[in-house]
Design a protein that fits this description.
Mean pLDDT: 87
Largest sheet: 6 strands, parallel
Number of strands: 6
CATH class of the largest domain: Alpha Beta
CATH topology of the largest domain: Rossmann fold
CATH architecture of the largest domain: 3-Layer(aba) Sandwich
Shape: elongated
Helix content: 40-55%
Structural class: alpha/beta
Strand order of the largest sheet: 2-1-3-4-5-6
Oligomer: single chain
Distance between the termini: 45 Å
Number of helices: 9
Number of domains: 2
Order of helices and strands: EHEHEHEHEHEHHHH
Strand content: 5-15%
Radius of gyration: 20 Å
Low-confidence stretches: 138-144, 209-213
CATH superfamily of the largest domain: Response regulator
Length: 213
């Protein structure tokens, strides 16, 4: 029986490209496409058209790919999930495997590697694609989220920094002394291992769902 694959990505051109790649293989059949996390969940739970594996993007509207992975893993443990994402940070990789992903690939990989990954996870292996920053083992998945290192006040300051607020505005909003926001900003940058505000904002936005309280 061929491997039944569901493609979940909010970009139609990506879905079309993946379908063309997979259709060249006799042992793989694409049984559906989803443009967001909600649709991926609905199709995954459709027992009339069961799938064996989902190729899942992370950044999708509605439910993101990591939250969708977590929900699918809770109810449909038999379905394999391969993340195909533009994000190559160890934080995203950690969150994906913690949610229950079986493999992680970066967008832009060759079609042959996507096929290799599919066959590997169906066999029961965990697959790390070329260019993946940090292979995350089950033991490493117990590590704390980067943002968990921040105190509640530091998270509040970070949210305002991401929102584009100046130090003076942050001080007023949070009722802080004049230079206190800068002290918090420096402390946050040290904890998150970034060297400037632009990198701090970029990292915070990339962390996405885990940024919420």
């Amino acid at each position: 029986m061929p491997i039944r694959v569901l493609i979940a990505d909010d970009h139609a051109i990506v879905r079309i490209g993946l379908r063309k790649i997979l259709q060249t293989q006799r042992d793989i059949v694409v049984i559906g496409e989803a443009a967001d996390g909600h649709e991926a969940l609905a199709l995954a739970m459709n027992r009339e058209r069961p799938c064996d594996l989902i190729i899942m993007d992370i950044a999708m509207p509605g439910i993101n790919g990591i939250d969708a992975t977590r929900t699918i893993r809770e109810y449909l443990k038999e379905i394999k999930i391969v993340i195909l994402s533009m994000y190559d940070t160890s934080e995203h990789i950690h969150r994906a495997f913690q949610a229950g992903a079986d493999g992680y690939l970066l967008k832009g990989v060759a079609g042959d590697e996507i096929i290799t990954a599919i066959r590997a996870v169906v066999r029961g292996d965990r697959y790390y694609g070329k260019g993946v920053a940090t292979p995350v083992s089950p033991e490493q998945s117990q590590e704390k989220n980067l943002l968990d290192q921040l105190s509640k006040r530091e998270r509040e300051v970070l949210q305002l920094v991401v929102a584009g607020k100046s130090s003076a505005e942050i001080a007023e909003i949070l009722s802080l002394a004049g230079n206190t926001p800068d002290v918090y900003r420096s402390r946050i940058m040290k904890k998150l291992r970034v060297k400037n505000t632009a990198s701090l904002v970029k990292l915070a936005m990339q962390l996405g769902a885990s940024f919420q309280e």
